Amino acid sequence: MKPPKLARGWAEEELESGLGAESTEQSVIRHGMPEVYYDAGRKEFLMQDERGVWFGVSISQFSRKCRLHGISSAKLPDCCHSAFDAFADDIQHRRAVDFAGQIAGFKPGLLIEGGMRFLVTKGPDVIEPRKGDWHTLEAVFRAVLSEEDFDQLFYWHAWLKMGFEALAAGKRKPGQAMILVGPAECGKSLLQDIITSVLGGREGKPYKFMTDATRFNSNLAGTEHLRIGDENPHTDIRARRNFGAQLKNITVEESHQVEAKYRDALTLRPFWRLSISLNNEPENLLVLPPLDEHIMDKMIILKCTRRGMPMPTATLEERGAFWQQLVDELPAYLDWLSDFEIPAHLVSQRFGVQAFLHPAIKSELLTFEPPMVLLDLIDAYLIGPNEPFVEMTAAEIQRELTCDTSDCRFEARKLLPRATTCGRYLSSLAGMCARVKEARTSTRRAYRITRRPDDG
Q: Among 375, 361, 202, 222, which Cα is nearest to 288's?
């Protein structure tokens, strides 16, 4: 019995000459075809357009493109398949990729990591710095962020410098969450627009994923700027703790699990920077996670002020002209940032620049936190008028505040459902408040809470 005749066309000459079948790469070159890969998950062949952007085509569309390059779909004589069948099969076996799509921070092309092949279909639009004038941008930054008591502009420039330089170099470096707090229409959203432009021009909305409202986050994989602004905020403690856990993950971790509907989850290394803009009302501030020593170093919180913009923005035409002026000045601003220096005492080995929480906003946030509410209850109900301090265990404090004879029992029972909750809040207080100290012995873990200085 004769062996089946192999496909003629793209490999026949090499077979008959005894040189063996040419590689898919050689065939692509000889037929003048663009580079081709195969996404088995979506069952698509991947090709580039004239801009260098990768796109997927079905097998029928790919067959038509192959015919234009001389790879026929007609069945070969004495064969049960065509030259196209052999060519497509070879691509599916040799040039299959595990993921095809945008990955934040990566240029288009094949990426091999951890034994897996990723095809990055489109990269960020990285601005090329150049000398020039950026007076309008500077006026915007000063209008929104300048303060007499704190040099907030330094932290704004330093944060953007770290982010842009890492993106332009194709490197992964952690970056704090940039949090902008201020009244409505003060320019917070405009600053976020500028962040998007500086960091590649792509942004995603991560709030639902960060508050555990959805587990799907594939829409974020290809966006360098994760932006939170006009959301429907969740202020319950569970959502805030989920938010805090995700904030830590985004700002510190290099690898992230990315999952889409009906697809297996993948581990990718996207370049991410997170920004959050909030109005300065209490219900908006409570979107942020509870402040503790594990979260405060992962945030930069700046206070924004409404002072007006350096150009008119009343009409659509004026707004368009204003934005175009800012975009035109970005290369000059980024060139200036390249020479911007961070003093040694403000350098962070992890983030490049140390965290900063505006004292007024930090103080306001702390007053809303459960640990601070607990401290108020202890001050009001457990420290006697002639006592300089009280020293009790978490269980004792929880029991005294929630017992049937306690004047604050209803509030305390809601705040302290169990003794372990009380212990967690006391531990947080010991880390943030000088009046709360651990008084541990070999058999007892108590806390000493000193009276407020203004209580006599």
A: 361
